[in-house]
Amino acid sequence: MTETASGSVARGGKRPRKGLKMKRIFTKPGVHPYDEIQWERRDVVMTNWRDGSINFEQRGVEFPEFWSVNAANIVTTKYFRGAVGTPQREWSLKQLIDRVVGVYTRTGIEHGYFAGEEDAEIFDHELKHALAHQVFAFNSPVWFNVGTLSPQQVSACFILSVDDQMESILDWYKEEGVIFKGGSGSGVNLSRIRSSKELLSSGGTASGPVSFMRGADASAGTIKSGGATRRAAKMVVLDVDHPDIEEFIETKAREEDKVRALRDAGFDMDLGGKDIVSVQYQNANNSVRVSDEFMREVEKGGEFGLRARLTGEVIEKVDAKDLFRKMAKAAWECADPGLQYDDTINDWHTTPETGRITASNPCSEYVHLDNSSCNLASINLLKFLKDDNSFDVPNFVKLTELIITAMDISITFADFPTEKIGETTRAYRQLGIGYANLGALLMATGHAYDSDGGRAVAGAITSLMTGVSYRRSAELAGVVGAYDGYARNAEPHKRVMRKHAAANDNLRTIGSMDAKIHAEASRQWSECLKQGEKNGYRNAQASLLAPTGTIGLMMDCDTTGIEPDLALVKFKKLVGGGSMQIVNQTIPRALRQLGYQQESIEAIVEYIAEHGHVVDAPGLRLEHYEVFDCAMGERAIAPMGHVRMMAATQPFLSGAISKTVNLPETATIDDIEQVYLEGWKLGLKALAVYRDNCKVGQPLSAGGTKKDKEKEEAKAAAEPEVKVIEVNRPTRRRMPNQRPSMTTRFTVGGAKGYMTASSYPDDGLGEVFLKMSKQGSTLAGVMDAFSVAISIGLQYGVPLETYMSKFVNMRFEPAGMTDDPDIRMATSVMDYIFRRVALDHLPYEERAALGIFSAAERAAQQRGEDPAALQEAVDREALAQSAPIEEKPKPETGTEVERPVKELTLESHQRFTADAPLCMTCGTKMRPAGSCYVCEGCGSTSGCS
Fold first, then answer.
1. pLDDT by residue (tens digit) across 749-795?
2. What is the mean pLDDT of residues 583-594?
3. Number of C-alpha atoms within 13 angstroms, CB side, residue 311?
C-alpha cells in the first residue's frame, strides 16, 4: 500500500526526512468515502431494566443503513460526546469518525509521517472508509477521548510497578484509581513485596502482598460502582516462588466459600446485592507467574524452593506437584488463579536490556515492561472473505499497514495517566493490533475450529498480520526514527523477529486458503527482517489478541477475538425495540461452501432454528458436524481444542492472547491440571480457565456446600439403624369443579409457553398446568405428565417451598432472557415457572428466604426501603389468585394475563452463560469476550476493548 519517499516538510528546522507515500485501498480519487454510503436516521431509546423507564434517549441519529440496530445503539450511548439534548451533542457517525480521524491526520502531517498533502488525504479517506464500513476499530479509549477536551488517552491496557516500600504501595493505589477513573484497566506483579514470613527492619513481621491486595480491591470496587464508562478491571500477579504463594492461590476460593455460606444463610449475595460488599478480592483477576524450573519439578514430582524477597535465599521447600494441584483446585472452585508462563514470555521479549516482563493487563493479552501502556485496534476478518470464499490477502496487507501507521501516530499525541507510564510508552511505543471474527470466518469457509485446517488458517492470518505490522514498523523507523529504547535492545529485538520468521517457516499448511496466506506471510517476514536490519523498528511490540468486547459489537462481529462461535442461534435487535431469533448467518454460507443445495440448506437451517444445534439435522453429513461446533451447547468444543488454537497463533504474536478455556461443570481438577500443563508445553504465554457453574451466579442454592453434604452423609452413616414406625398416609385434597385460576403467557430463551395455576377457594395453590410446543409432540406430553405430578403432589400436601428448592436454578435449554419484568433471566423453563409461582403464591417472608423478589421489591432495596412494606397494601387473597384486589381489578377467572414485554437485549450465548455477571449499566447478562465479559445490550465491558 505504501512506499517511502523523500521530501516531507522539515520539522523544527531539521533536515527534511522521508515520508510515507500512501496508496488507496478502498477509496477513489475525488470521491469522499461518506458519499458512497447510504445513510439513514434512527431513534435510540434505552430503557431501565428494573422498571422499564427510559434512561437514554437520542432521536434522529445518523448511521449507515447496513449498521445493525445494536451497533448503532452502542456507539450512540457510549461514544457520542456532548450532553444529551444540547446542540453540542454528536448525532452522526460522521461526526464521531471525523473527530477521531482528524486528530490522527493532523498529527501525522505535523510530525512528518506523510510524503505530501495528497498522501495525508489518502490516509484520512482510507481510515474513514475502514471505520465507517466496520473493517476495523480502535479500542474504546480512542472513541471516548480523542478530539475532545478530555486528556487524549488512547490506551486501554496498563501495567504498573510496586516495590517493597509503603510509599510505592500507596502510589499503586492512587495510580490504579486514576486509570480506573479513565475507563481503563491495569495489572501489577506484587512479588517484590516481602512475604508474611519475613521480618521488617524494625523487627516486626511483614504484612505480605495478600493483605495489601485487600485495600486495592476495596478501592477498585468503589471506583467501579461510581465509574461512568465501565467497571474497573485489574490483574494481580504473584511469582510461584513467593513464600505467600499458597495464600495467594486460595484467596478467592475461600471468599467463594464465604459467598455460598452467607447466601445459604439468607444474605443477599447477588451481584449488586447489599451484602455482596462483604466479599473481598473479587475485583481482580489473579494469576500465578510460573517458571520452567517449577513446571519441570511438577512433571517429575520434585521439590521447589520459595525464596525471600530481599535476599533471594530459599526459606521453604514445597512439593511442586502439590502446589500445582492447589492452583488447579482453586481454579476448579472459582476460576482463579490463571497461569502466566514467565520463561516463555521473556524468551519472546524484545527489550530485555531495559527490564523483565513481570505482569500483564487485566485480560492477559498485553505483556511488556512495567509502567507501560498499549493501545489496541482489531480487524474484522469476515470483511476480507470474498464472494468466492477466498481471503483477500492484498487488501488485508494494505489495511494492516494503515492501522499500524495510525496507531503509532496516536502515541505521538496521546496523554497518559502517570508520567512514568507516559515516559515508558513514548520510549517503546507498544502497539496491539489484533482481530475479531476468526470463529465466524472459519465456519463460513467450512473449517472446524478444532481442526488442523482451522488452526492452519488462524496461524497463517496471525503470522501475516504480525509480519506486515513489524515490516511497517521498520519502514516507519526509516521515516520518523526507531523507538528510543531500540539502540540498547537492537540485538534481542532482532532475535525475536527471527524467532517469529522461523515459526512462520515451520507453519504447516493444509488447504489452498491458508497456503496463499502463508506464502504472503513468508514474503512479509523476509522483507521485515531486511527493513529491520536497515532501519531498526519503530515499535517494541506490534500485535496481540484482545477480547474485542465493545468494539466487536461496534463492528457487528459474530465472534470476538480468537473465540469460536458460542451459539448457532442468535437474537437480533429490531428497529423500534424488541428482538427476533435468527440462525447465525454464517451457517448458510458454510453449507454452500460444503456443497449443499439450497433445499438442503433451508431444511438444515430450519432444524437449527428449532433445536439450536445440528445433531440429527436432515441431510447434514456426520463429517460436517464439527464445522458447526461452538464453545458451549450440544456439541461443545473440547477444552484442549481451545488450547491448541491458542498454540497455533501464539508464535506469531508479540503479546499474548485474551482467552478463557471453558470447561463443563463435570470437569475435574485433573482436567484443569492437564490444561495448565499442556499450555506450558505448547508455548502459550498465559492461560485462564472457567468451569461452568463454579461461581455463585444465582441468589439461591439447591443445597448446601459439598463439605456440608459430606458431613451429612458421614453423620447418617454413623447413626445406628432405627426402627421404622408406620405413620398415617397423607390424604388427597381434591380441587373443586370450579376454582379460581390465572393463565400466564411466558417466553424463556425464545421459547413460548403458557402456565395455568389454579387455587383452592379458601386459599392455597392446588394445580399447575403447562403448555409448550405443538400439540401431540413429545415435549407436550412430558409437560402434561410433569404438570399432573406437581398438581397431585400439591393436593397431597407437599409444601410449595419444597418444589421451589428443587426446581429453582435447574439448568437446561431453553434458557436465557424472559419477557417477565420480575424475572429477567431464567436458567430453564422450570426455573422460570417456579420463580413465577413463588412470586404469585408465597408471602414475602418465605420468598425472601429463597432469594426471590419482584422488580418492585428489588427497586425498593436499591432505594434503601423495606420491601416488606410493599406487601401491606396487597390483599393476601390476591396473591393466591383467589380474589381480585379491589383498588386494582384483576382479569376475570380463567383469563390470560398479558405480562408487559420489555425490549429484549438478548444475545447468542446468554442461554449458555448463566454464571456470567450482570451488566452494571443495564442489568443484562454479560457474555464472555476473551478473559473478560461484554454486555451486548449496552456495550459495557469488564476489561479491555
1. 778 888 888 888 877 888 888 887 555 567 777 888 888 888 888 88
2. 91
3. 9
Query: Rounded to 10 degrees, what is the CA torsion of 507, 345, 417, 427?
Result: -80
Specify the pLDDT at position 14: 46
Between residues 823 and 871, which one has the greater pLDDT?
823
DSSP state of 925: B
d(CA 503, CA 268): 52
The verdict on pTM exceeding 0.90 is no
Q: How many CB atoms lie within 10 A of CB 213?
A: 23
Cell 532501519 belongs to which residue?
535
Confidence of residue 223 (pLDDT cuts 50, 70, 90): low
SS3 state of residue 289 = strand
Mean pLDDT over all residues of the chain? 84
Q: Which three cell numbers, joined as nine digits, stand for 72?
A: 448503532
DSSP label at 942? S
Contact partners, residue 171, CB within 8 Å, separation at least 6: none
3-state SS record for 347-360: HCCCCCCCCCCCCC
Query: Which of 334, 363, 528, 944 is an active site residue?
Result: 363
- Written in H, E and C, the secondary structure of 58-98 is EEEEEEECCCCHHHHHHHHHHCCCCCCCCCCCCCEHHHHHH
Between CA 291 and CA 339 the distance in angstroms is 10
Q: What DSSP line would sit under 94-133, residue for residue?
A: HHHHHHHHHHHHHHHHHTT-BSSHHHHHHHHHHHHHHHHT
922 in catalytic set: no
Phi, psi of 663 (to 5 degrees): -125, 150
- CA angle centred on 534, ends 532 and 538, rounded to 5°: 45
Instruction: Identify the pLDDT of residue 538.
Output: 98
The region of weakest confidence among 657-661, 698-702, 787-791 is 698-702
Q: Which residues contact 726 (CB under 8 A, 6 or more apart)?
A: none
Q: Classify 166 as helix, strand or coil.
A: helix
Write the CB contacts of 94 (distance below 8 Å, at least 6 apart in sequence).
34, 39, 62, 132
Helix residue ranges per DSSP H, 200-312: 209-226, 245-264, 292-300
Is residue 761 a contact partner of residue 740, using CB atoms and an 8 Å limit? yes
Helix axes 320-334, 245-264, angle to 10 degrees: 30
Closest C-alpha to 567, from 698, 693, 443: 443
**Residue of 361, 371, 375, 380 marked catalytic:** 361
Q: CB–CB of 116/19 below 8 Å?
A: yes
Kind plus residue range of the DSSP H or E element containing 583: strand 579-583
Phi/psi of residue 543, nearest 5 degrees: -135, 155
Q: Tell me if residue 796 falls in helix, strand or coil.
A: coil
Model confidence over 167-192: pLDDT tens digits? 999 999 899 888 887 667 899 999 99
- Active-site residue, 361 included: yes
- Which range is least confidently modeled, 283-292, 634-643, 711-720? 711-720
In 3D space, the residue among 65, 56, 64, 67 whose CA is nearest the CA of residue 89 turns out to be 56
* SS3 state of residue 140: helix
In the numeric block, the cell 496516536 is attached to: 410
Q: How many CB atoms lie within 10 A of CB 892?
A: 8
- Catalytic position from the list 365, 767, 813, 936: 365
CA distances from 282 to 64, 130, 219, 554, 851 (A): 40, 38, 11, 28, 21
Distance between CA atoms of residues 23 and 398, nearest Å:
9
Is 938 known to be catalytic? no
Q: H or E element: which one contains 766?
A: strand 765-772
Residue type for 880, please?
Answer: A
Please provide residue 857's backbone torsions phi and psi, each rounded to the nearest 5 degrees. Answer: -70, -40
CA pair distance 304, 297, nearest whole angstrom: 7
CB 940 within 8 A of CB 231: yes
Angle at alpha carbon of residue 843, lines to 841 and 845, rounded to 5°: 145
- Determine the distance from the C-alpha atom of residue 859 to the mean position of all C-alpha atoms in its chain, rounded to a whole number: 27
